[in-house]
Amino acid sequence: PGQFRATLTAQPRSVALLANPTGPATEMWLYNEDTVAPLIDVFEGDRIEITFVNHLPQPSTIHWHGLPVPSDQDGNPDAMVEPGGTRIYTFTLPLGSSGTYWYHPHPHRLSSEQVFRGLAGPIIVRAKNDPLATYPERHLFISDLKLLADGVIPPNTMMDWMNGREGQYVLLNGQHQPRIQLNGNERWRIWNACNARYVRLSLNSHTFSQVGTDGGLLTHAVHDLKDIVLAPAERAELIVSAPPQPTSFLLTAAPYDRKKMTMGHGSPSDDPTIVLAQIKTSNAQPLHLPDRLRDIAPLDKPTATKKIVFSEKMNMLAMGMNHDGFPSGMEFLLNGRSFAMGRIDQESRKDEVELWEIVNHSDMDHPFHIHGAQFQIVEREHKGQITPEPILAWKDTANVRPDETVRLKIVQTLTGKRMYHCHILEHEDLGMMGIVNVV
Ligand code: C2O
Ligand code: CU
Ligand code: CU
Fold first, then answer.
1. How far apart (Å, rounded) are the C-alpha atoms in residues 399 and 310?
2. Residues lining ligand 1, judged by CB closer than 6 Å?
3. What is the DSSP string of 381-418?
4. What is the CA radius of gyration of the chain?
5. What is the pLDDT of residues 399-432, one digit of tens each?
6. Which atom of ligand 1 is closest in space to residue 433's alpha carbon?
7. Which residue's CA lies nearest to atom 1 of ligand 1?
8. How far is the CA of 303 from the centre of ligand 2 (A)?
C-alpha cells in the first residue's frame, strides 16, 4: 500500500481575479497558494497523512467529504483547529472506496463563509483494477464566487442565508469560462463545490454517458444523456466524446428551479443559463465502453429505520440581520430542532443496514448528506406516488424536493459521531444538521 503525505495551509491570499483579471485584487481564503486547492490523488488501500495548518482568522477543520475515515479524523465541528494551530489527519482508505470526493472546512456556523471564500479541494480515490483507467481524465471542479465591483467578497445577506448563497461567477477549476480542447473520448470527473448553486450541466445538444456517481463507478454506463443536475456537493463521472466532425460548443449550466423564496423580487425561473466553458473538439474515436463497469451488491434488508424531516420556520416580522452577521426570523430544522453540538440525535449500530427516510416538509429543495458511509437510494415518494430509484449507485448526497420522501439504505462500518445535514452550507450553519452516534 502507498503513502500519501501533504500539508494543507489555509490562508488569506490576494488574487488578481480569475473572473476579472484586470480588476482589483480579491482576498480569498485558500489551501496553499492556488485558487484550486491541491488534488489528493490516491489509491484504495493507501495511508493518508495530511498536516493542516490554520492561518485563517477563525477556527477551522478539514472534513473528507464522502470518505469512510474514523470519526475523530473527519474534521467534525467539535474538533476545531484554532487560528495559528496545526493538526495531523491520518486515515487508511479501505478497499472498495474508489470514487470522487472532496475536502472542505466544517466548523459550526463558519463553514459557509470559509467555503465561499475559496476553501475546497478535490480528492480522487482510484481502484487498482479500474476498467476506465485508459481514458484520459479531465477534472471540472465547479465553484461560484460572489464579488462586488471593487473585488471584495461580501458577507452573506439575509437572502443568501435564506436560499443559500449563489455567486454571479461560476468557476471551473478556479477559472472563469476556460477553453477546453476535447480530444477523442474523455472521462470527466465533475464536482459541484458550490455553497448552494444547483448545476444543470449540458453540452448544447451534444449527448454524453454517465459512468459514476459520488462513490465511484456505476454497474454500467447510462448513455445518451442531454443534461445532468448536480445538487451542491454531488459528483459525477461522465464519458464525453468528440463528435465525428471537429466542432465547438458550450458547456452550460441551465436554470434549475429549486423553489427559492423570492420575497417578491422576481421569480427563480428568471435565472439565466450560465456559460461554464467553451469547448473545441477534435480526433473523434469510436467508443467501446465495457458492458460491466463493476459490481455493486444491493445492501441487505434493513433492520432499523430512521426518519429525518427537513422543515423551515419563517417569521417575516422578525426577519433581519444581526450584528454578528447571522439572520434572525428564520430557522432551518431537522426533526423540529436546530443543531446542538453536545446532543446526540440518532443512534445507529455499526455494520447494521438501516433504512433512512428523508422527508422534506419545507418549501424548497434541500440536499441531504451524511458522513462516514456511502448509501444506496431505494425509492422516492412524492404525494403518494412511489418511484423506485432507476439505477444502483453509491451516493453520499441526495437532493430532496419539497413534499418528497427519499428512502435510502446505509450501513456505517466505523463507530463514533457522524454529522448529517443539508449541504446548502448556509442552512447547515443555521442549524439544519444533526449527529448520529454509531456504536
Ligand atoms: Cu461536505 Cu458535512 O459535508
Ligand atoms: Cu461530508
Ligand atoms: Cu437546505
1. 12
2. 63, 65, 104, 106, 233, 369, 371, 419, 421, 423
3. EETTEEEE-SS---BSEEEE-TTEEEEEEE---S-EEE
4. 21
5. 999 999 999 999 999 999 999 999 999 999 999 9
6. 2
7. 65
8. 24
d(CA 96, CA 216): 9
What is the tens place of the pLDDT at every residue in 160-173? Answer: 999 999 999 999 99
The residue contributing the CA closest to ligand 1 atom 3 is: 65
Q: Which amino acid is at 204?
A: N
State in Å: Cα 289 to ligand 1 middle: 32
- How far apart are the C-alpha atoms of 77 and 75, rounded to whole Å? 6
If you measure from the C-alpha of residue 224 to the centroid of ligand 2, how many angstroms do you get, rounded to a whole number? Answer: 30
Evaluate whether 65 touches 33 at the Cβ level (below 8 Å): no
Q: Does residue 43 surpass a pLDDT of 60?
A: yes
Tell me how far the alpha carbon of residue 418 lies from the centroid of ligand 2, in angstroms: 9
Compute the distance between CA of residue 150 and CA of residue 142 in angstroms, rounded to an integer: 23
Residues 305-323: what's their mean pLDDT? 96
DSSP 275-325: EEEEEEEE--------S-----PPP---SEEEEEEEEEEE-GGG-EE-TTS
Describe the strand order of the beta sheet including 375-382 as a list of residue ranges: 330-334, 304-314, 354-360, 404-410, 375-382, 385-388
Closest ligand by atom to 196 CA:
3
Q: Which three cell numbers stand for residue 143?
A: 465553484
Distance from residue 65's CA to the centre of ligand 2 (Å)? 4
CA 15 to chain centre: 24
350 within 8 A of 300, measured Cβ to Cβ: no
Q: What is the mean pLDDT of the chain?
A: 95
pLDDT score, position 22: 74
State the average pLDDT over residues 332-349.
98
Q: How confident is the model over 78-94, as a mean pLDDT?
A: 98
Cα–ligand 1 centroid distance for 247 (angstroms): 39
Beta bridge partners of 332: 312
Inform me whether the pLDDT recorded for 351 exceeds 80. Answer: yes
Whole-angstrom distance, CA of residue 79 vs CA of residue 105: 11
Cα separation, 425 vs 439, whole angstroms: 28
* 294, 97 contact by CB (below 8 A): no
Domains of the chain: 3-126 (2.60.40.420), 137-282 (2.60.40.420), 304-438 (2.60.40.420)
